[in-house]
From TrEMBL:
This is Protein BPS1, chloroplastic. It is found in: Membrane. The keyword Coiled coil applies. It holds the Pfam family ROH1-like. It comes from Cucumis sativus (Cucumber).
Length: 349
């Protein structure tokens, strides 16, 4: 699969983002401080739970499902917090609106690319079922077909057309956008910028990890340095360091894929293919055990793909609904303003 061609820029090339989201002249009330602290503490706990207990958890579909669930819950928390802030869209800076709308449409594109990758993996389910049927059959004709059916899996998994190439410019621009606009004389705006910074950092990290897993290259990883001032910084830094290090280790070892569930299937397929080509008389029991293992790993792969696809779809709909709500509020505000001026005109969004 192809790798991203653009060079990586160091984070942060634009200076310390904390200065941009912690302006002077806007004091935060105790209520707003509580809302922000609640959001950040919740995010920190989720990041801690996502930290793998062992290296074997990294890029397993169960771990990736938890990662996408974290994104979904965090983005949902943003919607809830904005409502609790009582901060109407009419008071948002135009730069914030443009930033949010721009990022949201990019996230929708990324979700579509991830769904496409998962769909291609899911197509291998029928190939594995056919291979298992031939391996378990007592018919000599089907036994002869076993090697070709195993080859079909290898060909399918190695010739997949990756769509994540289009994700790299999106992720790169998302990293550049971490330098949020300064907030002047708005305590609610200050809290909003803290929250948007947090959700963008976490989104960038998880999406870059997913892109790396699908592309077969650690070059997709986009590390972010988060100031220690944030309550979730320590948990994020520990998670990012561990996960990125393990992914680089996987690819440096020459592994074909970093996806644990796919690699588990590949390992059994490779062993079975080798045994079929050799002398089966002395390894019939081992051969049968490998068939059982392949069936188990194939089922794990299928279930993992299905569950992760569901999480990606749910995240897509949360981003889409948040975008639709914002656009609806903008249209409503514009309509009210225009009517007050004596005429109704709709702003083109």
């Amino acid at each position: 699969m192809s790798k991203p061609q653009e060079p990586h820029r160091p984070f942060f090339p634009f200076g310390n983002p904390f200065r941009a989201i912690s302006p002077k002249g806007a004091k935060v009330s105790s209520r707003l401080s509580f809302l922000l602290a609640t959001f950040e503490d919740s995010l920190a706990e989720r990041l801690k739970k996502l930290t793998p207990k062992s290296e074997n958890d990294i890029l397993s579909f169960s771990w990736m499902e938890l990662a996408m669930k974290l994104l979904r819950e965090t983005h949902n928390d943003v919607k809830t917090l904005v409502e609790e802030l009582g901060f109407p869209v009419s008071e948002w800076d135009e730069k914030w609106l443009d930033e949010y709308l721009n990022i949201s449409v990019k996230l929708l594109d990324i979700c579509n690319d991830f769904s496409s990758e998962l769909s291609q993996l899911n197509q291998g389910h029928l190939i594995l079922r056919c291979a298992l049927h031939n391996l378990e059959s007592t018919s000599s004709n089907q036994s002869v077909r076993a090697p070709s059916s195993l080859d079909a899996w290898n060909q399918h998994i190695s010739s997949r057309t990756s769509r994540v190439d289009s994700c790299y410019p999106i992720l790169d621009s998302l990293g550049e956008s971490l330098d949020l606009p300064k907030v002047k004389n708005s305590s609610k705006g200050k809290v909003l910028m803290h929250v948007l910074y947090a959700v963008k950092v976490v989104t960038l990290f998880i999406c870059s990890v997913f892109a790396s897993s699908f592309s077969g290259s650690s070059e997709w990883l986009l590390p972010t340095n988060v100031p220690d001032s944030f309550r979730w910084a320590s948990a994020f830094t520990e998670l990012q360091k561990y996960v990125n290090m393990e992914i680089k280790k996987i690819y440096s070892s020459g592994r074909f894929t970093a996806l644990r569930d796919v690699d588990a299937v590949n390992e059994r397929v490779k062993k079975l293919h080798s045994m079929i080509q050799g002398n089966m008389d002395d390894c019939k029991e081992e051969f049968q055990n490998l068939i059982v293992e392949l069936r188990r790993e194939a089922e794990n792969l299928t279930q993992g793909v299905d569950h992760l696809t569901k999480q990606v779809d749910e995240f897509f709909h949360i981003v889409l609904s948040g975008r639709d709500e914002l656009l609806s509020n903008l249209r409503a505000n514009e309509a009210v303003f225009s009517q007050g001026m004596g005429g109704l005109c709709t702003r083109q969004l």
